[in-house]
Design goal:
Helix content: 40-55%
Number of domains: 2
CATH class of the largest domain: Mainly Alpha
Distance between the termini: 47 Å
Number of strands: 4
Strand content: 5-15%
Length: 226
């Protein structure tokens, strides 16, 4: 059985990706929750080479970083990437782009599933990130997703990598239009995302470094939204 080390479900976008990839594999796994505290914790090196989560243990094999976890599982379990080669190449490309890019989105829209907040106006960099994500979603659906509700047909690792974005958009009031909006709403009601959301909403821990009303306290005060 796999063992998956995870951070707080309300906050940890990276943990969400690792968990979704493991769920998608269909394999049995045990979760080990690790309480995040908003800073580096060297004690975590007992189970993670980087002291970060998620980390997947398969016996004596340790796999860290969400993209590595996804590929490790995809080598061992069928159906995690699209079957058709062009769709699979597209899915890998957009997942890698999400994994390595969108720094403004990550910095300006911390994941906090329980929160609903309006911090507009957004920065130009964040506005550009949102527009690029909507472009990816729209183009993916038109090219490879017409036969199902997801980016490249059946729910796949491509959707796994964009799942945290769906929650961030919900938190910060981003409502994609047309095809992108249809995909966003379908992703939010996927059973795996609903299961994660339910667990996240049950958590009571507060990590102030990831709380939007703490991060944006001064801006909200200036806008009269506190």
């Amino acid at each position: 059985m796999y063992v998956l080390y995870l951070g707080n479900k309300n906050y940890s976008s990276w943990s969400l990706r690792g968990w979704l990839a493991t769920k998608l594999s269909g394999a049995a796994f045990r979760e080990v929750p690790i309480s995040l505290r908003g800073s580096y914790n060297p004690d975590n090196r007992e189970f993670s080479p980087t002291a970060l989560v998620p980390v997947l243990h398969d016996g004596t094999t340790v796999v860290w970083d969400t993209l590595a976890i996804a590929e490790y599982l995809a080598e061992r379990h069928p159906g995690m990437w699209p079957a058709e080669d062009k769709a699979r190449a597209w899915a890998r490309s957009i997942a890698a782009e999400m994994h390595s890019g969108f720094s403004a989105l990550r910095n300006d829209m911390t994941m906090c599933i329980r929160e609903r907040i309006d911090v507009r106006p957004w920065s130009p960099a964040l506005t550009a990130d949102i527009a690029r994500i909507e472009e990816i979603w729209t183009e993916s659906r038109k090219r490879h997703g017409a036969d199902n509700a997801y980016l490249c047909g059946e729910f796949s690792l491509a959707d796994v990598f964009f799942a945290p974005v769906a929650f961030r958009f919900l938190t910060y009031g981003v409502e994609p239009a047309r095809v992108a909006g249809e995909y966003w709403r379908a992703l939010l009601v996927h059973p795996f995302l609903r299961e994660w959301e339910t667990a996240a909403l049950a958590e009571t821990a507060i990590v102030e470094a990831d709380e939007p009303r703490v991060v944006y306290r001064d801006k909200l005060a200036a806008l009269g939204r506190l």
